[in-house]
Every structure is written in C-alpha cells, then in structure tokens.
Amino acid sequence: MITLCNATLDQLPATVLRPTYDRARLTPGIVHIGLGNFHRAHQSWYLHRLMQQGLAQDWGIIGAGVRAFDAAQRDKLAAQDYLTTLIELDPSGQSAEVVGSMIGYVPVAEGNGPLIAQMADPAIRIVSLTVTEGGYYIDPVTKAFDAGHPDMQFDAANPSTPRTAFGAIAAALRLRRDRGTGPFTVQSCDNLQGNGAVLRQTLVSLARASDPALADWIAATCGFPNAMVDCIVPATGPAELALVHSFGIDDAAPVTHENFRQWVIEDAFCAGRPPWERVGVTFTDNVHGYEAQKIRILNAGHQVIAAVAEVMGMTTISQTMAHPLIHAAFRKIAQEEILPHVTPVPGMTPAQYLDLIDTRFANPAIVDTVRRVAFDGSSRHTGMVLPTVRDGLKAGISVRGLALVEAAWARMCHGTRDDGTTIEPNDPFWPILTHQAQLARATPRQWLDLRQYYGDLAQAPAFAEPFEYWLTMMYRDGMSATLQNYLGAN
C-alpha cells in the first residue's frame, strides 16, 4: 500500500494516472470554499487536465471551509499534500487518477481571519463555492435574500469577523477595494438555477447591510458567472476507502464518480480565468437552457425516486432504478409532466437527455445512496420540483405525478418506512418536517401548510387534491400499491 503524497507519486501502480506537471511550481489563483467530493471530482479535475497540458500553472486551488468540522477535512488533505485519488466507476471497469491542482487549504478559524487574508491576496482572481443549493440564504418561495436569518444578521453586525462564507468574501473584497488591488470573480458551482445571479444577490445584499458603498462596488466590479455543473459523485465511506486500497493507494479522502462530466459557464469573469474550454467546458450565453434541462430532469428526477425508495427500504439509486414500479413511475412523470417544460439545447433534446439520465442513474458501478440523494429535501424539492409544478398548473398540464412525488416526501418525513423501520433524520429542518408529516398522516393537506416551501399551492386544487389522494393511499395501502395505482391510471 502506497501512502498518497508528493514523495510517493512515482511509486504508484503504473495503471494509476498521476500529475505530470511540477506541483512545486504551481501558484495560487483560486480559493474554493466547500471542499467536498463534488468539487474535487469536477472543477478541480478540469483544472488538473489543463495543468497536464502545461497550462494554468498560476491557477492552483487553495481550499477553504467556514465550519468547525471542515478542519478534519483539511487535516486529511494536508497529510497527503492535498492530492486526491479520483476513481471512475464505469460499468465496463474502474480506473484511478491522482489529481494535483489543489495546493493548499486555509486554516479553519473562528472569525475566518485566515480565509479573508487569503482571498485578499491579489493573486486570487476567482473565489468559487460549493455550499449546497440550500446554503445561499434565500427565501425558498419568494427567492429574496433572507436578511432575517441569524447568520446574516451576525455577519452584518460583525463584518470583520463573519461566520459565513459570504461574510468572509465581503470582508476580503472590502480589503481589496481599500488597497486598490481590484475585485475577483465569485463563482457558484452549486445546483441552483441562475446560481451566479443568486450568489450576486446574497453577497451584495449582505454587504449593503453594513457598507452600502462596498455593496455598490461589488455589484459594479465583480463577476458572477452563471453555470451548470454535472457529475454524479457519491459520498465517501468504508466501501470507497476499500476501493482505493484495491488500487494499492492509501488515500484518506478518495472520491468516486461516474464516467460523465459537464460544465457550462457564462463567460463573465472580471479578473481572468483558466482556458477551461480546452478541456471540454462549454462557454455560452444560454446557461439557463442547459441548467433548466439538468435541474428539471436530473436533479428533480433524483427527488422523483428518492423518497419513494427510502420508504420502500432501498439503499442505492441503481437498485431503485432496477425496480420496475419505480422506474416506470420515473419515466411516466418525467415524460408527461417535466419534459413539456424543458427546451432543447444544442445537440440534446429533452427526450435524449432523459434517456441519458436514465442510463446514468441505473449505472450499478455507482454506489450512490438513496439517503444522500434524499438529503435536504427542503431545499431540493423547493428548488427542483416545485417550479415545474407551478409551470404545469399555469399551462394546464397534469401534475398528478408530481403531487405523488411531494406526497412521498411527506411520507418519508414521517420518519418510518412501510416495513416499520425508522428513517433517521436527513434534513436540516427534520424536526419541523417530521412534526408536520405526523399531522398530515391524519389530515394530508396539513403538509401543504408548510408555506415556506409550498406558498399558495395548497389553494391549487389540481395539485392539492391528488396530493391528498396519494398520501392517504400511501398510508393505507403502502408505497408499492400507490405506484401501481398511478401507473394504471389513464
């Protein structure tokens, strides 16, 4: 077993790809906040591919986190010189590659002083984030900035010692403005429609609460490119650690991923960028079309199957897709209620994209858990499913299948499966959701009283009536019988 670090790269098995560039010569250009698996399999990999071509040597990534538990990730990565083993899980076989584009990790500290100082360095030209779609402090119904959130109130009152990533970014930009070193691009890599615009709203609104002049400067000078990101990246657990060991590598933080990646970006960078187009990134003014296709079919598709599968006691997404009832319901809901609201993008119709997603979800080599996909439904249903419900109601298209999806989420949040076993908490707002789900068992429409997610949808009979019908049936007859009923309906 070879312990992963710079000194052992030449000792890795010949079948494992590794950096061919001199990592000691890399200099920083990007700070990335939220060093999870997705970033290391996606943005970091694209940059690594450029470096393998002798390009982008001045765009090394400095990792960062703002939560106390991020320190453990920093320790793991620092011990192996910030290298990561990526393992591609293709149905035809597995392959491994060591990625070296990350060259440091900011110490995690209360008040975020080290992070602010790093971002204030003039060498940093991009600050990117993966903080999950629910981490942008926006109201899930109105999409407005949530100025009343305790985190935002704290950062507005303590702009020099903030607790959030956005407060730290504002503080760093204040230093750069005052020193005359110029702005940087702030780049969201999260699954949000219009993620650049959402990020701009959050950062400018927070800055305005304590320094209106700074807010104006950020709005006028910083870049906030919209982007669509795509790659299925499971969480790392014992199976993934065993898998990297099978390649002869001792890596404390390996990442597994599917054999598909996509990155579509708006070219709106205020301080330069790596030439990502040379390694397959698409630059376009029509990011919205790509992200709408992905969020509505892939991300919403995950929510179509996840809660159903959890209630039925399934553990992986590929296992779920192999279940005839769940797979048939996934196809029916997508074809009848989601695809009508998705427009084609160059080279891909919505129907073709659905077939691609079907194949990707069914990949048995990807051990992507139902629990991971079902996590944070309060953000994912609000941002990925309910917009299509509203579009369907507006267009007069049936939303009975999507009402079933929402009923399944309510059923899951009750905290029990059809076999009586317990579903462990799996949402930042689990106590609220569980309480409402328990009320909804007797009176289904009480779930729709969660106005922070559903707004006025409880007053839409075309959605509320089938929701009540499905949730009642789920408790009375079980999830399998409910799916059979849905599939047998005209």
UniProtKB/TrEMBL annotation:
Transmembrane segments: none annotated. SUPFAM superfamilies: 6-phosphogluconate dehydrogenase C-terminal domain-like, NAD(P)-binding Rossmann-fold domains. Residues 29-277 form the Mannitol dehydrogenase N-terminal domain. GO terms for molecular function: oxidoreductase activity, acting on the CH-OH group of donors, NAD or NADP as acceptor. InterPro entries: 6-PGluconate_DH-like_C_sf, 6PGD_dom2, Mannitol_DH, Mannitol_DH/Oxidoreductase, Mannitol_DH_C, Mannitol_DH_N, NAD(P)-bd_dom_sf. PANTHER family: MANNITOL DEHYDROGENASE 2-RELATED, MANNITOL DEHYDROGENASE DSF1-RELATED. This is Mannitol dehydrogenase family protein. The lineage of its organism: Bacteria, Pseudomonadati, Pseudomonadota, Alphaproteobacteria, Rhodobacterales.
